[in-house]
Amino acid sequence: MSPSAWLSELNRALIVFIPCTVAGMVSGYMVMFFIIGLIAYGLWTAGQMITLKKWFDSGAPADNAPEFIGIADQLVSAVADLQRQNSTRQNSLEKLVSQFNEMADALPDAVIVLKPSGEIQSSNEAADNLLHINPDSDTHSRITQLFRDPSFTEYFSTGKFDEPLEVQATTIGDKELSIRIIPFGEDRLVLIAQDMSHSARIHEMRRSFISNASHELRTPLTVILGYLETLSGHPKLPGECKTATHSAELQAQRMKQLVEDLLALSRIESTALVTKESEVIPVASIIMEVVKEAGLSTTINQHGIQTQIETGVSLKGDLQEIHSVISNLVNNAIKHTESGTSVQVSWKMADQDSAELSVTDTGQGIAPEHIERLTERFYRVDAGRSREKGGTGLGLSIVKHVVERHEGRLMISSELGQGSCFTCSFPAHRLLLEDQ
């Protein structure tokens, strides 16, 4: 409390006690008038306290602050100043909240704040458009009761939000959504849903175009190859023409392989997951078969191919697709490494929950900036070298899509000068143990 407040309180006491003292001295009843002064001072103070309480009970508005003399006036001034400061801060916070709400409503993506239990705390207007969750009426409801897509219910219940969930349209007019849930703060989740319908349509148009164009190219390429094979075997063909015909035949074969790979990739992308009740694939036998075939082609390159079969477990899926995975990985290891490189193909149980197919080489390795893009269509680390080796740039893209169709994942690790390792991990429910 400041000295001025005590001085003011002293003045208030003097206002009461000086008249009482004078009256006591004149009348000779000093004690009585002193007691009267104390009572008057107490009543005055009590009145101030009652007025102060009423002011506090009304919310202590700064514009309606009572005026006192003494310490009470100092308290009222301090409270009024705090009220003005709080009012300023509150107005600023309300402005920020209003701006945030306007920004959230302006977003094209649905934004929903949730409790870990799924109770909706707040949402924007896009949530109503994309998920049919009303910002006004659906607050405090559980999101799994309002958005009843089975894949979302499973996604939310698992609590594993590392990857976004892709929700496919089930009927005409439905939207294809990408949903991501991000934990933040204390016991809060934010759900962001993005409409991917336009991107999905563009992707489907691109896939259809590639598929249709590849189909149209297949027939004329077959005819061209037939004529080139006939010409190259003609006994009266001049020597200089044989060289040109052979070169044209090689390029036509490469183009045919490219068309076949495009058609295979288009077919894989357009179909759903391979059913678990499909073919039983003896992975170990396919590895031995692919390695044997690759060994015949490595006599010139002098690659050493080894196998490491640690389990006889089979895989449930599509035999042709898994064969293409193994073949692509082994052939890539041979094509994109120097002569004398060692290549190891292994099939083993990683743990009780998965089995791994790995192809490891001791080649020159891959720079870190290329690894993330290796599975993109037509992406090549060294385009000139890949074309020389006859690669189409689609092998790893096919591998990735096939592995994902079998509910697995492709992992790539590499270090310059230390070689590369391509690992396909398959979940336990896709495996068939030897004694089953």
Q: How would you describe this protein?
A:
- This protein has a 5-stranded antiparallel β-sheet. A 5-stranded mixed β-sheet has the order 7-9-10-12-11. A 3-stranded antiparallel β-sheet has the order 6-8-13.
- It is built from 13 helices and 13 strands.
- By secondary structure, the protein is an alpha+beta fold.
- Helix 8 packs parallel to helix 13.
- The longest helix is centred in the first third of the chain and has 36 residues.
- 53% of the residues lie in helices and 18% in strands.
Kindly report how far apart the N and C termini lie: 86 Å
What is the radius of gyration? 40 Å
The outline comes out as: elongated
pLDDT below 50 for ≥5 consecutive residues: which ranges? none
What count of helical segments does DSSP give? 13
Into which percentage range does the β-strand content fall?
15-25%
Secondary-structure class: alpha+beta
Q: How helical, in percent, are the residues? A: 40-55%
Average pLDDT value? 80
Numbering strands along the chain, what is their spatial order in the largest sheet?
2-1-5-4-3
Total strand segments: 13
Q: What's the SSE pattern?
A: HHHEEHHHEEEHHEHEEHEEHHHEEE
Q: Give a quick account of the main beta sheet: strands, pairing sense, barrel closure.
A: 5 strands, antiparallel
